[in-house]
């Protein structure tokens, strides 16, 4: 989800709620402690220089159980970040700690924002020697070819 998408959704909400893919909710007394532009410049394992940009949100739980982040307050934080930091309309990446700090993509299910698990991958599979996906065939789909010299009753498989 891009920042512009979130800004269109939030004004229509009565409450801002986040949940994980497994259905558990971020406690409703969470804080948004950071909003900013995250830039990652790196070299992949194949030597290609890469750059990624995202709008970073950090969620944090405190012991102030009466705290509730209202939609207007969240929009105010976003507007301040846009004004002071010049953040771009990029995909949102959410940091949330449950055991350790996790990084999530963001989606919306019509009622709540959903933290979508991110996964790692190799960006240079050919350079690393990672084989491409194998083609799966049924043996009955294989046909003999005259060039191989292997035809029924040729004795090649004896």
TrEMBL record:
<protein>
    <submittedName>
        <fullName>DUF6428 family protein</fullName>
    </submittedName>
</protein>
<dbReference type="Pfam" id="PF20001">
    <property type="entry name" value="DUF6428"/>
</dbReference>
<dbReference type="InterPro" id="IPR045534">
    <property type="entry name" value="DUF6428"/>
</dbReference>
């Amino acid at each position: 989800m891009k920042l512009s998408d979130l800004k269109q959704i939030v004004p229509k909400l009565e409450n801002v709620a986040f949940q994980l893919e497994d259905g558990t909710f971020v406690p409703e007394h969470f804080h948004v402690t950071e909003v900013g532009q995250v830039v990652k410049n790196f070299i992949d394992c194949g030597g290609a220089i890469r750059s990624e940009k995202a709008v970073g949100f950090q969620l944090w739980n405190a012991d102030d159980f009466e705290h509730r982040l209202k939609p207007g307050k969240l929009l105010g934080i976003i507007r301040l970040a846009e004004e002071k930091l010049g953040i771009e309309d990029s995909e949102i990446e959410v940091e949330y700690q449950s055991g350790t700090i996790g990084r999530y993509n963001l989606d919306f299910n019509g009622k709540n924002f959903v933290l979508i698990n991110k996964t790692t991958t190799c960006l240079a599979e050919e350079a690393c020697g990672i084989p491409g996906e194998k083609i799966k065939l049924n043996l009955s789909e294989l046909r003999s070819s005259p060039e191989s010299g292997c035809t029924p009753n040729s004795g090649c498989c004896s």
